Design the sequence.
């Protein structure tokens, strides 16, 4: 770990497709796509933070399958960790920070403009989608 505060992202996979969410804020991220998630609160585990963030942002419940390798910097203060997840209850809907959701197949991952911290995880996620791991 880097000593930076951790932000968690959910790589939600269903039927061989990855959930992508289009940001509305902040202005520099608006219109770009990400793996949904958010900041880890004091006292939370990474799994707890991720399930809370997805429930708050998308109105559904996810199960963490495993954490992907590595982490990526977000500015000077944060680092992104991403978990492979499945839907446990409900269907995702845009509630807070997103104005669109898309389910992308492996060959569609490059069709959206991902935020930079999410991009390094796409190679591993493409492999997961092709192998239908989740």
Sequence:
């Amino acid at each position: 770990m880097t000593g930076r505060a951790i932000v968690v992202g959910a790589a939600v996979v269903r039927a061989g497709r990855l959930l992508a969410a289009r940001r509305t804020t902040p202005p520099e991220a608006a219109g770009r796509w990400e793996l949904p998630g958010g900041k880890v609160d004091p006292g939370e585990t990474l799994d707890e933070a991720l399930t809370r963030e997805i429930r708050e942002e998308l109105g559904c419940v996810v199960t963490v399958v495993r954490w992907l390798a590595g982490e990526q910097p977000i500015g000077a203060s944060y680092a992104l960790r991403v978990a492979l997840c499945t839907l446990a209850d409900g269907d995702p809907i845009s509630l807070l920070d997103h104005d669109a959701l898309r389910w992308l197949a492996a060959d569609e991952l490059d069709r959206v403009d991902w935020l930079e911290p999410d991009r390094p995880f796409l190679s591993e996620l493409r492999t997961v989608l092709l192998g239908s791991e989740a």
Observations:
- The chain has two helices and eight strands.
- The chain has one domain: 5-127.
- The radius of gyration is 13 Å.
- Strands lie at 5-14, 17-23, 33-34, 37-39, 61-67, 72-74, 78-89, 98-104.
